[in-house]
Amino acid sequence: MTRPEAVILGSGTSNGVPMLGYEYPPGYLDDPKNHRTRSSLALIGPTGNLLVDCSPELRLQATRENLTRFEAVLITHTHADHVMGMDDLRSLCVLTRRPVTVYTLPQYQGDIRRIYPYAFVDLHPEGIEVPRFDLRDVPETLEVGGLTLRIFTVMHGTVPVVAFRVNGFAYLTDVNLIPPSAEALLQGLDVLVMDAVRYRPHPNHFHFDQAVEVAQRLGAKTTYFTHLSHDYDHTKTDATLPPGIRLAYDGLRIPV
Question: From CA 164, how far away is CA 52, in angstroms rounded?
């Protein structure tokens, strides 16, 4: 039986790192951990895998980690960096001959239909393959791949974002406010993965100082910061972080 784990498929902010058009200091890009694809996660369960968000680099992320099947997909919200890789799910539909199950909040299902209208149209010429999505409301308790996820929402500016806890692991991408009801579910964690987009304040994300304060208040044994901009030079920054706090990186694997 597969040992449950979380795989950080992408640890970068919406621009990714390196960012298009930006010139980096000598040596910065020599560190592979400073190469960050857009934020997404895979949960590897005893009986199947859950994909959390579909970044524009989804195909590259999944093939890099040798992930060939997903039992379902969880979309946290429909900003471009979290959904523009959904077309890559087409090949899974071709292989299985059935739609991909996609869980998300009801208000985001309309966005997915608008972005990918061809995934919901039956009349295509013979030989044309398209992705197919079975959109479902995400329940408070989600059973996928032999894992049980407790679903809740946090705020990303004015946008609600799906977050979850599974066993002693929790994942909060794109967040600048954790409601009290959600914070109550984040006690006694072994590992927290949480947004810390940059050093200077941001209206819709935790910046570094906020993220450190929240991480220390929640008290997980280990907190990994994700959704990271090029503000962070991985090795140098990691060496200066408070005890129990680390930077996530693409390909990081965490026992769940």
Answer: 10
